[in-house]
Amino acid sequence: MISTTEIIFQDIPENSEYQELAEKVIQKCFEVENINPTSLYICITFTTPANIRQANKQYRNIDKETDVLSFPMFEKEELDKIVENHMIEEWKQDIENEALQEILGDIIISISRVEEQAKEYGHSFERELAYMLVHGFYHLRGYDHMEEEEKKVMREKEENILSQLDITRK
């Protein structure tokens, strides 16, 4: 089967648990959003605070460390058309034909920030990392949280994924 995720460990040790969680979470996101996983893939980079700060400065002109960055390859309307053309019902046919994948985008996550925020919010590292992955995914899908109504929609989608995976705040 064609993979939906590429995992990169930048200046941190490789960790199979992070990789397995990332693949599970992204697969669930694709499933819930009815996106054919053979048509799109995501590159996820787990990195250090210094590296994410550098990326934030380089690409967003913000000289500040953050927890997660998302770099979508498409505008929401463009992506909706791509998704519409590659619905889940076509999976088997695309796998047989080895369909070419489009890049949905990149997600960069600071593992140190995930650890800090898990402690700060009083829940598990797994929950915080899963949340960062889902949060990044929805940014790639064109969702945002700048306005209150947008934030409500995005948070509902994020919590839906996490609850379906039984990843709770505990």
What is the CA-based Rg, rounded?
16 Å
How would you characterize the largest beta sheet? 4 strands, mixed
Q: Mean pLDDT across all residues, rounded? A: 86
What is the general shape? globular
**What's the number of helices?**
7
Which bin fits the share of residues in helices?
A: 40-55%
Describe the structure.
The protein has 170 residues and is α/β, with parallel strands linked by helices. The protein contains seven helices and four strands, in the order E-H-E-H-E-H-H-E-H-H-H. It has a four-stranded mixed β-sheet, with helices on both faces. Strand 1 (5-9), helix 1 and strand 2 form a beta-alpha-beta unit. The protein starts with a strand and ends in a 6-residue tail after the last helix. Residues 94-99 have low confidence and may be disordered.
Provide keyphrases for this structure.
4-stranded mixed beta sheet; alpha/beta; 16% strand; 53% helix; 170 residues
Write the SSE topology.
Elements: E1 5-9, H1 16-32, E2 40-47, H2 49-60, E3 68-72, H3 76-85, H4 91-97, E4 102-110, H5 111-121, H6 125-140, H7 148-164
Parallel strand pairs: 1-2, 2-4
Antiparallel strand pairs: 3-4
Helix pairs in contact: 1-6, 5-6, 6-7
